[in-house]
Structure formats: structure tokens, C-alpha cells
């Protein structure tokens, strides 16, 4: 019960910070330019700093082998998730223009703006290297398989014309990890050896990620319109896929791997399971618009998952505590 109550309190804290963004947007204090700038600040400055410092302070080079196991689990779970969702869209006869969105929405997570703050609230900054594994795989699959699946479902054309934007494969947050690697190799105690003004500055900037990310999600929810969410058959199936099927698939893969002798740290497997149940990727409506798919459905999916995760996460944490 204590774990459940801790999860509830962590989620309440997250909701309050989201509510600040929602309220300020509703009052007109946060305009469109501010929202766009906030997103850039988080993605290109604060998050790389947070990842860099987390790697230096809480990670050792000999842990890379353990992280590679998480890569395998994450890749397998997402691809199995795509297979299950592909079967679901045909069984339930999901209309064209929603199929690709559903498949990508079920298997693509909002790792940065909700996944990271959530993981830090539940497990602390020590879990960031583990979350980074999910983030890297999630990002690559979204911008390859995910985009292709949505483009293939474009109701206005029979051609699968997909434009791959290669810059998405090395987003700014991943550079925080890449730059940290040389320090881990040649300066293992860099967190204490680097000048204090550098480490303190980077730590303070990185500390902005959690509150700013959650306020940004609050702004998005205000723009989407929570009261306008339509719980259609397609949306309900997507919610089941994202919040129930996806974490169960991840859990089963980890358990199978453990029985085969491929074990990972307890916090690592909890991180992967929680990330498998985070809200759908925030750019889904943008991709829907680009490929002439159902923008309203994509918006409802992002908004609904961003609201309902506050109920799902404490339940998952309670279940994990008894397994």
C-alpha cells in the first residue's frame, strides 16, 4: 500500500505542474510563441544537460552491457506491439485514416514530456540512463516504422510516399548521451573532477526538464480541449492497447528473458514497463495532418492518454510491487 500511495503522490505532483501550464494558457499568459520556445528549450538545452549530468553522476562504463539487454527488450516489445495492433485494426475494422495513427499511437510513447518527469518522480534521477534506452529505440522506430505506417494509411493516395527526416534520428537529447561517453571512458570521475561552475550550471539547467515539460503538456491539453474528447470505438481500442497491452507485452518479454538468463536490474525493468504505458507521442496530430489522416482522432488519442495515465500508472506500480 505504501508503494501505491507513493505513486499516487508522485502523480498528483505531476498533475499539479500540468495544471499550472493549463491554467496559464487558459489565462492567456502563455502564448503560441512562448509554447514553441518552451518546447525548444526543453528538447535542445535542458534535456541534453540533464542526460549528460545523469550519465556522469550515476553511470559507469561497465553498465553498457546491461543497457544493451534493455535495447533488445524494447525493440522486441514495440515490434510485437505493432503486430498485435495490426491484427486489431483488421479485426475491429478500423477505418482508413485511423489505422496507422492507432498502430503508432499504441506503440509510440511521449518519452520526453511525460515519460521522463514520470520516471524521475517514481524512481529518481538514477533511472535516467535506463529511460534513455527506451527513448532511443522509441525515437528511431517512430520516425521509421511509425511514419511509414501512417503514410501508408493516407486515404488520399495509394502510393506509400514517405519522406524520412534524418535529423530525427539524432535529436538533441541523444547528444547529451553521446558527449558523455568520452568522459565515461577517459574521465570516470568527471562529475567531481570538472569545475564546479560547469557541473552546477548543467545540473541546474537539467533540473528545469521536469517542471517545464509538465507545464508544456498542460498547455497542449488546453489547446486540444479535454472536454472535446470523443471516446469512439477506435479511441477506446487504442487506450486498451497503450495502457494494458503494451506494458503486458513488455512485462512478458522481460520475464521470458529473465528465465533464459538475460536479466536486468529491477529498476531497469520497472522503467521499461512504465514507459510502455506512458501517453502517446505528442506529434501524432502533426503527422496525421501531414499525411491527410484523421487529425481529430489523433488529437483525441494524445489528449486522452495524457489525462488517463494519472490513473493507470499508480495501478501498474502497485501490480509491479506484488510481482
UniProtKB/TrEMBL annotation:
GO terms of biological process kind: transmembrane transport
Annotated membrane topology: Multi-pass membrane protein
Superkingdom of this protein's organism: Bacteria
A single Gene Ontology CC term: plasma membrane
Main location group: membrane
InterPro entries: Mem_transp_PIN-like (IPR004776), Na+/solute_symporter_sf (IPR038770)
Compartments where found: Cell membrane
Keyword presence, Plastid: no
Entry keywords, A to Z: Cell membrane, Membrane, Transmembrane, Transmembrane helix, Transport
Alphabetical list of Pfam families matching this protein: Mem_trans (PF03547)
Similarity remark: Belongs to the auxin efflux carrier (TC 2.A.69) family.
The name this protein goes by in its record: AEC family transporter
Taxonomic classification: Bacteria, Bacillati, Bacillota, Bacilli, Lactobacillales
